[in-house]
Each structure stands twice: as C-alpha cells, then as structure tokens.
Amino acid sequence: MKHNPDDRSDNVERIQKNIDMTIENMHRADEMIEKTDDPNMKKTLKEKNDRREHALGGMRLEIEDEAKAREKRK
Quick one: 26 exposed, middle or buried, by C-beta within 10 A (0-12, 13-18, 19+)? Predict the structure, then answer.
C-alpha cells in the first residue's frame, strides 16, 4: 500500500478557519446567555466558552508553529 505524503501546505489556513469558527461560536453563546433565563443553560454555555477560550490558546500556538515550519520549507 502506498502512503500519501504529509501535505501541511494548508495547515495555517485550516487552523485560522477553526479559530474564526470558535470565536463565532463564543459570540453566539454569549448572545444566548443574555437571552435565556435558564440558569442551567447559562452555566453550560459559560463552561463551553471557558473550554473554547482554552482551546483558542492552543490553536494560536499551533498556528505559530505551522507558520514557522512553512517559512523553513521555503
């Protein structure tokens, strides 16, 4: 079986898209928090946003690493 080569040429763009989508989801959750009166829903959405915020930090580090790796390949 022939393996496909590791193509990382679009990693920076892919990670940036994930960052943008995560930020959009955080904004939508914030809007829902403002609109709902359900304390359990508010708690759940706040917890999700906390996890998203944590994930953004990792994605930002990953995008920096990929950008550096891209520069080295040039």
Answer: middle
